[in-house]
Write a structure and sequence with these properties.
13 helices; 8 strands; Rossmann fold; two-stranded antiparallel sheet; binds nicotinamide-adenine-dinucleotide
């Protein structure tokens, strides 16, 4: 075994607990009494019900979270937190709502309880992306890592099927890139392999039966494992491509991850045979990049950038932005290679087999 460094992040994970009971216990466990509950407008009804259920422990509700964490929304939410004298934050939702909680914690140091309802994994990372004046910036700081995460499988039963598939592939992407990360280590590799297997097994089952609780639990467990990989090690080509496509072309987050992942994997896996072998084992396939395409395609996900609003004449700019930014790459990726990868993804072609 090679020498390695593994930094464990502090996290209290409460897995598959009924949210109302767990929330009461965890708010009090933090020594708090006045929680501000956060959500998007889409989940406003759900959190107002939750606020009623936890009674006195809910000081207020802010239900205007938005994708990409606009600073103006964070400031509005902080005004509400001050008005209601909140002493902790409870973010109930996907990466957008959890991002709002993180952005507020960054500025106020209020403790956070995250209650994820998608598979994006933000709840277990010290990473925050924010947008201001059309620019998205990302930073890593322990100040934004939620103190407690409550996973309640029942809250994921309402996640629309197509979003479940793409959000699940978003999680798989974190684990795939963890396998060849610069700081890759045996602890994270274990989590990555287990997380990928869980999601690959669960997604077809929950498409067949969206309220299959066992499949949803397996997917949520996979999301925790894959998100933990994202929080523990740096990412590579795939995440850089998605960051540029989301930030500069406003493409939808999990759909973009789903489309790009097989192409990024096909580009890098030949140069990282050890990672390719683990991925192949996790997926039960000797063509892991092809399988990363086949699974979401079979489950009805859009597999072409052109289908989700990417202009063809933007590909060159995207390739340039990716190549000009500094990030870890396990193998060389000249701009022409990035451009041809994007071209394939724009058309939605299945990547060539990388057999292991
Ligand atoms: P999202 O949070 O934007 O959710 C998409 C929509 O689905 C929202 O309207 C939401 O209210 C709704 N929704 C969520 N869960 C639901 C449920 N169970 N039932 C019904 N509706 C539900 O989507 P996302 O993909 O989870 O998050 C994307 C955002 O998260 C992006 O801004 C991305 O950059 C960020 N993100 C950050 C990290 C990180 O580590 N910082 C990691 C992953 C994603």
């Amino acid at each position: 075994m090679k020498p390695f460094i593994y930094t464990a992040l502090p996290a209290r994970i409460v897995f598959d607990a009924p949210v109302v009971t767990a929330l009461r216990q965890e708010i009090e466990g933090l020594g708090c009494r006045r929680a501000l509950l956060l959500s998007t407008p889409w989940q406003a009804r759900a959190i107002s019900g939750l606020a009623d259920d936890i009674g006195n422990l809910a000081a207020g509700v802010f239900d205007q979270a938005e994708m990409h964490t606009p600073v103006a929304v964070t400031e509005a939410a902080i005004r509400v937190a001050n008005e209601v004298r909140a002493d902790c934050l409870v973010a109930v939702g996907g990466g957008s709502t959890i991002g709002l909680g993180k952005a507020m914690a960054l500025r106020t140091d209020l403790p956070q309880i995250a209650v994820p309802t998608t598979y994006a994994g933000s709840e277990v990372t010290p990473i925050i992306g924010q947008t201001e004046a059309g620019r998205k910036t990302t930073q890593r700081t322990l100040k934004v890592l939620p103190e407690v995460v409550i996973y309640d499988v029942d809250l994921t039963l309402t996640l629309p099927v197509q979003l479940s598939v793409t959000s699940g592939m978003n999680a798989v992407a974190h684990a795939v890139e963890a396998l060849y990360a610069q700081e890759a280590n045996p602890v994270v590799t274990l989590l990555a392999e287990r997380g990928i297997t869980a999601l690959i097994r669960a997604l077809p089952l929950l498409v067949q039966a969206p309220s299959d609780r066992n499949a949803r639990a397996e997917a949520l467990f996979g999301a925790w494992a894959c998100g933990t990989c994202l929080g523990a090690v740096g990412m590579s080509l795939h995440h850089k491509l998605c960051h540029v496509l989301g930030g500069s072309f406003a493409l939808p987050h999990s759909e973009t991850h789903t489309i790009i992942l097989p192409h990024a994997a096909a580009a890098l896996l030949p140069g990282v045979p050890g990672a390719a072998a683990i991925l192949a084992r996790a997926m039960g396939s000797d063509d892991p990049a092809g399988t990363l395409y086949d699974i979401p395609a079979r489950l009805g996900a859009a597999m072409a950038l052109r289908e989700i609003g990417m202009p063809h004449d933007g590909l060159r700019q995207a390739a340039q932005e990716v190549t000009q930014s500094a990030y870890w790459l396990p193998v060389e990726m000249p701009q022409a290679r990035v451009l041809s990868l994007l071209e394939e993804a724009w058309h939605g072609r299945r990547p060539q087999a990388v057999c292991v």
